[in-house]
Amino acid sequence: MSGRGQLMWDDAVTGYDFGPGHPMDPVRLSLTRSLVEAFGLTKRMPVVAAPAAGESTLRLVHRPDYIEAVRRASADPASANGDFGLGTPDDPAFAGMHEVSALIAGQSVGAAEAVWHGGVDHAVNFAGGLHHAMPGSASGFCIYNDAALAVARLLELGAERIAYVDVDVHHGDGVQTAFWDDPRVLTISLHEHPRTLFPQTGFPEETGGEGAEGSAVNVALPAGTGDEGWLRAFHAVVPDLIAAFRPQVLVTQHGADTHFEDPLAHLAVSLDAQRAVAEACHELAHEHADGRWVALGGGGYAVVDVVPRSWTHLVALVAGAPIPPETQTPEDWRHEVYRRTRQGGPMRMTDGRRPSWRGFDDMGYDPADRLDQAVLATRRAVFPLHGLLP
């Protein structure tokens, strides 16, 4: 089930830094890169630094006046006053913001180009997945929406059907917005219910614009959902829709903030379940998209204990060298963690769980269960639009 993989990386992406105390600490990127290196994954596939996304590429998703506003705030951070979402507590301006945001976007666009042109089967940019940025504003720690730009570039190259699956704890609102009226793009987001978490969107009734009905899919999970419920919801919704849509490329976003240790959200998912969903996405790419898979990072604010391990598993799958769950973390890497953060690094690569789930179709559902209610609401909203029974 493995294919030729490629890792997108440029050391300069760690310059995506909103400053001390901000949850989006770039150490999560550098520690992930070090753990990937410690497992020898960079010897199993090429590491490619794509150029930054240029103006014409950024305009595939973002408005020209917004791009210009980012440039101004990047050159003079003190001038940002909240216009276009820049200079806010979530998205404070910083010097070089435009350049590093465009660089991260360039890695995701480069991943999409490599997969579409056939140079590789899979490509991963764990620095990407900045899915909240809107066409005309920053939002939720995101300046340019690299995920939407990767999809838009695939459309520009001639792709006719692209599936985007987002398993970040937060709704993938920016990507949904970018393709709301485009039936060529199926966006599926599994996230904590909008009543309890930013960005307060992603209800099951959000199903796409006129002429693109059923192109947006939202599974709004109750706070507290753990491994069994999360996996049950994923497998009750995603595989059937992917099979019906028949994408030419699968783009996935793997925010690690569903984890029970994440400080900004309220799901209770383990690393083992995150790894299982990444495996499932890999399999879906081979089953329905001729192996074409673009994998992105996303949120994740347990920057030492969770993010590096979760995304290293993702990179390992792309490389065709999955890391067994019981594997210990390399000692040298744990020493680096302590040197950089004065925290002890985790000892093993997962949480030691053995996640399982009950199938929705073969095991039935409980109408009194909040998780099953959420799944059924999504299936009723979109499955008939794809010729499927709810």
Automatic annotation (TrEMBL):
It holds the Pfam family Hist_deacetyl. It comes from Streptantibioticus ferralitis. Residues 22-316 form the Histone deacetylase domain. Gene3D superfamilies: Histone deacetylase domain. Keywords: Acetoin catabolism. Signal peptide: none annotated. This is Acetoin utilization protein AcuC. CDD domains: HDAC_AcuC_like (cd09994). It comes from the Bacteria. Pathway: Ketone degradation; acetoin degradation. The keyword Heme does not apply. Belongs to the histone deacetylase family.
